[in-house]
Amino acid sequence: MSDTRRPIWVDVTILLLAGIMLVGMIVLGNWQVRRLAWKLDLIEAVETRAFGEPAAAPNGGAPEYLRIFTSGILIHDKSLRVKAVTEIGPGFWIMTPLETAGKTIWINRGFVPSTLNQDQWTRPEGQVEVIGLARLDQPGGTLLERNQPETGRWVSADLVEMSRAVGLDNVQTGYFIDAEATPAPPWPRGGLTRLAFQNTHLIYALTWYAMAALFLGAIIYVVRDRLSTRD
Question: Which residues are paired to 113 by β-bridges?
Fold first, then answer.
């Protein structure tokens, strides 16, 4: 009677694949733990910086979500539109350079729906004061899309490329300002900076670790059962 037992190399291959899956689950759990630490830091930054009295816009770097103010003249003819999806719907952020006594600072004046044209936006003239939150430079684009300066398509606030595209010099790099809401006519609508963040990373991390533990138990059971049948 022929031996119908499964070849040992098949068992070894299955065990290796199972080991890879187990390591993958642990890696995903570890990644969620790192994301948890990042999210907690982000929430703390918002809570400690975004709601106090505004500080003067620094000449250099600025902590993200710090509430700051500055004044100058908006250069409307150099405004750019950055793709956005908000609670209002799809549209654009209106990014306008503000010429101050020092450097030119990019201002996110707020959101406009994609159905509006620039004739329906406010265009304040003369000296204006801007109060808002410092936001960090967003070079390149997003995970799903890239900026296309050559065609004027922007999906993130890449300050260096935006300044180059409209021919600006002496620009403040590193951060721009998300303007707060104002009582002026509604578009662009400021004050839509996202300040509430869902934090489910701990749940996801525990889920991956639990799956890894159960999977390891299953591997041990199958290996022991397989070894007993070979005796």
Answer: 91
Amino acid letter, residue 91: G
Q: How far apart are CA 105 and CA 127, in angstroms?
A: 14
For residue 138, the one-letter residue type is Q
42 CB contacts (<8 Å, ≥6 apart)? 197
Backbone angle region of 20, left / alpha / beta, with phi > 0 → left and psi within -120 to 50 → alpha: alpha
Reduce the DSSP state of residue 45 to 3 states and report it.
helix
Coil, helix or strand for 103?
Answer: coil
pLDDT digits (tens, 9 = 90+) for 145-199: 999 999 999 999 999 999 999 999 999 989 999 999 987 778 999 999 988 888 8
Q: What is the pTM of this model?
A: 0.79
Is-contact 154 147, C-beta < 8 A? yes
